[in-house]
Amino acid sequence: MNGIAQVAALLSGIVYVAVSPLEMFFYDRPAVRRWLHVDTTDVADVRMWAFVVGVRNLLGGAGALIGLLILHSGNEPAGHAVTLSACWYMLLAGLAMGLADLLGFWRPRGGSVLGTIGSSVLPLVAIVAASV
């Protein structure tokens, strides 16, 4: 796995891990919801979903970071597989967010554009760079 792929995977993992506590524990704060571009009428109704999304983001990000640790600990094939699996997960999850917006599930509609781009570009760079 080349350097570009590793750096992109590392940054992806850091971003996903860093954002997850906001979704898991601080979703009830209006500033966090604004930063996440989410307009929730009744926070209590979506609290569980926000927590689950945060956990899934934490797992995806941690997977990329653990994959890189495995890669650099000497088990290159396993590290490569774990890192790329996590990157594929993060890419597909980001694209699913965009699809949910297109289907009208995001409020306000179009609000997921920055999040979709932000959560998809780095994993995509890692996947493409690793395949070269």
TrEMBL record:
The keyword Transferase does not apply. It comes from the Bacteria. Keywords: Membrane, Transmembrane, Transmembrane helix. Pfam families: DUF1304. The chain crosses the membrane at residues 6-27, 48-71, 83-106, 113-131. The keyword Membrane applies. InterPro entries: DUF1304. This is DUF1304 domain-containing protein. It comes from Nocardia farcinica (strain IFM 10152).
